[in-house]
Design goal:
This protein has about 210 residues and is α/β, with parallel strands linked by helices. It has helices at about 50-55, 95-105, 115-120, 135-150, 165-180; strands at about 10-20, 25-35, 40-45, 65-70, 80-85, 155, 185-190, 200-205. The strands form 2 sheets. A 5-stranded parallel β-sheet has the order 5-6-7-3-8, with helices on both faces. The chain starts with 10 loop residues before the first strand and ends in a 5-residue tail after the last strand.
Length: about 210
C-alpha cells in the first residue's frame, strides 16, 4: 500500500447483469469492472436505468438476471456507501446532529464530524437546524456522510445536484481523495467530473444498452 492508501485492493465486477423494476428490464447483460483507484461515470438520458443500476449494486434492488461481486475486499465489514439523490436529512436536527446520527449508524471509522463539515464548507453552520439549509448546503451535508465512515465503494447518484461551481469542484476533490486512498467510485451524473488524473475516469453510456 502507498502512504495514502487505506483500503485493500478491491474490484467491483458485474457478470451478465440485467436490472430493472417491477419486472421490467432497464438494462440487460451488462459486463464491466471497476478496480481500486478508478471512477466510472454512468451517462444516459433519464429513464435509462442509472439510478436503478446503482440501487442494484447497493443491494437494495434485486437483479433480474446475472449478478455482481466485490472481489478482494474484507467481507467482515461494510464496504459500500450509497449516496442517493435524496439527501436523507432530518430538518429538525442540527447540522451536527444529522452527521453524528449517520456516523453512529455507519461506524465512526473516518473523519470527525467537525473535520468532515469543515471539508464540505459547513463548519460555521454546525448548530443550525438543517431545515434552514439551502438545497446546495443540504447536498454538502449529505456528502459529509462519505467522510465520517470509511468504505471503499462509493455509489453516487447525481452527487453534484443543486451544487454551484464551487460545489462541483468539491465533489471532484472528494472523489480524487477517495481514489488516492484505494477506493473506487461509480457515479450517475449529467454533470462533468474533473479529476486530477483524468485517466482514472471511465464512462459507460447506458442509453446504448436499452
Amino acid at each position: 500500500m502507498t502512504q495514502r492508501q487505506v483500503f485493500p485492493p478491491l474490484t467491483l465486477r458485474t457478470i451478465g447483469l440485467s436490472w430493472g423494476r417491477g419486472g421490467m428490464a432497464l438494462g440487460e447483460s451488462l459486463d464491466f469492472s471497476v478496480s481500486a483507484g478508478r471512477c466510472l461515470l454512468l451517462r444516459g438520458p433519464n429513464g435509462t436505468g442509472k439510478t436503478t443500476l446503482l440501487l442494484t449494486l447497493a443491494g437494495i434492488v434485486i437483479p433480474l438476471d446475472g449478478g455482481f461481486a466485490l472481489e478482494g475486499g474484507d467481507e467482515e465489514i461494510a464496504q459500500i456507501h450509497y449516496c442517493g439523490h435524496r439527501n436523507a436529512i432530518k430538518p429538525l436536527l442540527t447540522v451536527l446532529e444529522n452527521l453524528e446520527f449517520w456516523r453512529a449508524i455507519n461506524g465512526p471509522t473516518g473523519a470527525s464530524c467537525a473535520e468532515a463539515l469543515g471539508t464540505v464548507g459547513l463548519l460555521g453552520l454546525i448548530d443550525l437546524d438543517a431545515g434552514y439549509l439551502s438545497a446546495g448546503q443540504t447536498r454538502r451535508l449529505a456528502l459529509a456522510r462519505l467522510l465520517v465512515s470509511l468504505r471503499p465503494v462509493w455509489l453516487l447518484d447525481e452527487p453534484t445536484a443543486a451544487l454551484d461551481a464551487a460545489g462541483h469542484g468539491l465533489v471532484s476533490r472528494l472523489i480524487d481523495r477517495h481514489l488516492e486512498m484505494g477506493g473506487l467510485a461509480i457515479a450517475a451524473t449529467h454533470d462533468p467530473i474533473t479529476l486530477a488524473e483524468p485517466d482514472r475516469l471511465d464512462t459507460l453510456a447506458l442509453g446504448a444498452l436499452v
